[in-house]
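Format notes (please read before filing issues)

Several people have asked whether sequences and C-alpha cells are stored in separate files. They are not. Every record keeps both together, in the order shown below: the sequence lines, then the C-alpha cell lines. Line labels are part of the format and must not be stripped during preprocessing.
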Amino acid sequence: MTDTTTRAGFVALIGEPNAGKSTLLNLMVGAKVSIVTHKVQTTRARIRGIAVHEASQIVFVDTPGIFRPRRRLDRSMVAAAWGGASDADLVLLLIEAHRGLTEGTQAIIDQLKELGQNVPVALVINKIDRVKAEVLLALSQKMNEAYPFVQTFMISAEKGYGCADLRDWLAGALPEGPWLYPEDQIADLPMRMIAAEITREKLTLRLHEEIPYQLTVETEAWEEKSDGSARVEQVVYVARQGHKGIVLGKGGETIKAVGQAARGELEEFMGRRVHLFLQVRVRENWLNEAERYDEMGLNFKDGDG
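Then the structure lines:
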C-alpha cells in the first residue's frame, strides 16, 4: 500500500441515548470496544473503535448520547459528544426507526445547523426491522427535509442489515492519506480503561434504576505476570453508603458475579488469563472530582453549569 491509495479518518456517531451507536461501533470493528446495555446514557467517554475495510482505516468515535443535561457529569458527556462531532471527517446521525423525528433529534439537528456544514453528515436510520417500509420512506423524506444529509442509510445494527453498504460508503468517503493506527489495533483506549468499561457494563446490567449512573469504575493497578497472565485491581466508586451494600449484594454475591462476568469477557478480549480483583468504595462527591473525569476521558471543566 502507498499513501496515495490509502484512506483514513474519523467518523463520529451521534444521536440520542439508546439509538444504537455502540452496537453499530462494535459491529463495524468486529469486537466489543464500547458498552452496550439496555440502559440509556451508558457510554461516557469518546471511545474510538478502528475498522479496516479494503484500503481504508475507519476510526469510529462513539460519543455519549446527546440529551438534556442535568448534572455536571451529564454536561461533560454532552460536551464530549459535540467535541467528537466537530473534530470528525464525517458524522453519522443515528435515529431509531420506530421513534422517528423526536424532539431530541430535532434539537441535535438544530445544533448541527448552528455548527455549519463544514463536516458532512449522513443519516442512519437504525432498527428498521421494527417498522414497515412505507413508514421508513416517509421518515427518510421528513428527515432530509429537516437537514441536508449527504447520504441516508437504513440499517439494523443489531442484525447487520444494511451495514455493509454503510461501511463501503464510509471507506470511500474518507480523505486520502496514511493510516492513523497500526493495522492490528482495534481501539485507542488504554487497556486499563477498556477493562474498567467492561466491569462497569456488567454492573449496569445487574443493577437497577439510578445506581448505574451514580457509580464509576477505575483500574487502580495492572501487573503483567511471568506466566503471561495479568493481575488487574479495580475500584468501584459509589456515591452513597447505601449503594455499597447493593453493589456488593447479599454475602457479596452481586460483586462476585460481576467480577466473574467481567473477567470472562476480559480474557476473551485479551486472549489470555486475567486475575480480576474488585473493591467497592464510597466517595460521596466523586461526581464533582476532576480526577474521576480524567479517568473516564471527559473534561471536568465542560461540566461547569
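For reference, the curators noted about this record: The chain has two domains: 7-173, 191-303. Strands lie at 7-15, 47-53, 56-62, 90-96, 121-126, 152-154, 215-224, 230-238, 274-282.
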